[in-house]
Structures are given as structure tokens and as C-alpha cells.
Amino acid sequence: MQTGARYQAVLEILTEVFQDKTPADKIINDYLRQKKYIGSKDRRFITDMVWHIIRNRMKLEFDTKSSDARRILLYINKDKLSEIFDDSKYGLSPLTDEEKTWLSKENEEPYPDYVEAECPKWLFEKIKNIAFCKALNQTATIDIRAHNISRTELQQKLSAEGIETSIGAYSPHCLKISDRLVLNNCMAWQDGLFEIQDEASQITSLLVDAKPEHKIIDYCCGAGGKSLAISNELKNAGKILAYDIDSKRLEHIKPRMQRLKVKNISLTDIIADSDKDYDRFVLDAPCSGTGTWRRSPDAKFRLTKEKLYGLTKIQADLLSIAAQKTAKKGRIIYITCSVLKDENEDIIEKFLNQNENFAPINLKELWAKKIEAPYPYISEKYLRMSPLTTSTDGFFVCILERLY
């Protein structure tokens, strides 16, 4: 592709992304799937440019005083306008007189804190930490979890296939890959020796502290990542019930179970009212996903105050369900991939005020039993992980034990 045609593709993708209705990765994938003639190098250029602009969107919109994708492309390519806006058959149209006048003006205003942080103003007022927000805006590593194999042996097998990894700092099963790779072609993947799972998510699965004799449910299990990790801890013993209201999501677990040779997970989209004696109720609550902005930086622009409020209502309701279905001395493992207090500490405090028969366990003590690395947080009641402190996604964990 000629340079102009590459940027025309970037413009078309960004125009849809900036509507803030559909995840950017879906828009990119759908676009490239339709344009099968685009070669691999051009696809890489287009994808990298789109994500670069998304990760710097707030600064670029501030500098240009515009959310128009073409204006942003004009601004970041001021030194090679004739090469890109060349009016070629598949390229971008040349500059108008109005655009030339606009480009000649410089915006020298300093960035407000929320712009510097690349975080919508209303969300920054909740987070109030520029360094934290910048860490959430960095590209994430690919984290993988060794399954039914030591990570040392897995690392050797991957190295033999030309895939270099580094050791995760906390999870004993975690390896990290810095390069963007398609992993489902390698032999170790096909042999069921690993799963892709962020290290923080691996840690939460360890802290479930599941035993083969426990009655375990992974509620709102989604694609089943934690169920599969818990299965690995149990060495395929015991039984895990993976529940999700969306039966289509459950279908995605089946091929993963088959590849990993997992036999102790049952799938269901129905829970009986009488089912009230779970020893481990894993509640990976639907949330804003603010802790995963490294992987989906466009998501911050689709989150609204109204959506956040709706999520906190759902989280409180799900905790109430968990309380009804947890056995005496059983535990609710409350998890979100959110960094917002609204979805984490506030939800737990409200729950504890209304449920005196539950109390938080000491996470630092549990951590010491399950993980060799030092405990990475101050609070023993709550555990927070983030790209700034643990080089993971943002995760929150609180484990509540039923006293009576």
C-alpha cells in the first residue's frame, strides 16, 4: 500500500472508534477482515498507528481542539503532509485552505492533569494519580499460565520454539512475553501446556484456596479463565461449577477444557434456589474494566457515570446472592478488574454493614501460605494490584468468610 492509502485506512478506523460505541479491537479486526488485500506489514502499520493515537487521544484532542480523526492525522503528520494527503486513488484528499490556516496556529496551553494522565476528567477526579493513569495507558505484556507443567519446563519448551519469556514476579505459574505473538500456533499451546491469563488473575485464583472436598462455584465465569486456573490447582480433582447467565459464553469454555484436558468443571446457566452450601463462592463481578485499560485504552471513553452506577447496583445485588448461597465457614471471593473505589471498597463496606455474619479474612496471611513473593499491598483486608505496583492489570480482591 502507498503511504496515503495506509493513512486512509487509519482514518476510516479512527472515525468509527471515536464514536465510542464499539470496542476498538473489534473495529480493527472487522475492518482488516473485510480488506483481505491488505498485506501483513500494512496491517501492522495501520494497527500500531490506530492504537498509538487512541493511547494519546486526550493530548491530541487538546492540542487540536478537535475530536475529528482527520484533524488529528493532519496534526501528527505536519512534517510530511504532501506525502500522506496526496489525493491518490486510495489515499487522503489534499488539504483545504481552511485546514492550512488551522494548521498554522499553535496551541501552547499546558495540559491539565487529566489530559496529561490520558484519563477522562470525571474518572481522573476519582483516581487522582497521574503516574497511576499513565501506567494504565502503557502496552501490556502477554501473560501466560503454565498448566499441568512447571513454568521452568514450559519456558524451556517455548524457548525451543523461538518464544522468549520472562518470569512473573508473583504467580508461581506465570511467564511474560513482551512481543506481540500469535501463540495458538505453537506446539506448547496445542499440547495444552499453557493458557493466556494476566498474572493478577492468576493470583486471585490461587487465593481462592480451593480444596478437592470443597463445593466451588465460579459465578459470572465468562470464558472460564479462573475456573481453569482453579482446576489446575486442584490437579483435576474435586468439582468446580462454572456458572454464567449467558450460555453462549459457556460454549467458549468447552474447547479450552478439551485442549487442557480438564475434567472437573461442569457448566451451567441455571442455579437452583435451594443450592446454598458453597465452600468457595468466586464472584468475578461485572465491572467497569478500568484495570484493563492497558489492553483496551479506548474503553475509558465508553464508560459513563450512568454505566458505572448501574454496575455498582449489579455488584451489590450479586454479593447478596453470594451471601445467601455460601455455607457456614465458606468464603466469598469478591473480585473486580476495576481500580475504582466505587466498585471495590465501597461495595464491600456497604455489604459488611448489612451482613454481620460475614467478615473479611486476613489476605496477607493467606498470601504467605499460597505465594512465596512478598505481599504487595498495605491493607490486609483488601488486595489491590496494578501496572504501577505489580506490573499486572488492575485487580481488586476481598475474601469474606461466613461466620454463622
Provide a concise account of the structure shown:
With 404 residues, this protein is an alpha/beta fold.
Account of the 3D structure:
Helix content is 43%, strand content 15%. By secondary structure, it is α/β, with parallel strands linked by helices. The protein has three domains: 3-109, no CATH class; 142-196, Alpha-Beta Plaits (2-Layer Sandwich), CATH 3.30.70; 199-402, Vaccinia Virus protein VP39 (Rossmann fold, 3-Layer(aba) Sandwich). The strands form two sheets. Strands 5, 6, 7, 8, 9, 10, 11 and 12 form an eight-stranded mixed sheet that branches. Helix 1 crosses helix 3 (40-55), helix 4 (57-64) crosses helix 5 and helix 13 (199-207) crosses helix 14 (225-233). The chain is globular, with a radius of gyration of 24 Å.
Key traits:
alpha/beta; globular; four-stranded antiparallel β-sheet; 3 domains; 404 residues; 12 strands; Rossmann fold; Alpha-Beta Plaits
CATH fold field value of the largest domain: Rossmann fold
From the 3D coordinates, which CATH architecture of the largest domain would you assign? 3-Layer(aba) Sandwich
* Overall CATH class of the largest domain: Alpha Beta
Largest sheet: 8 strands, mixed
Low-pLDDT regions: none
H/I helix tally:
18
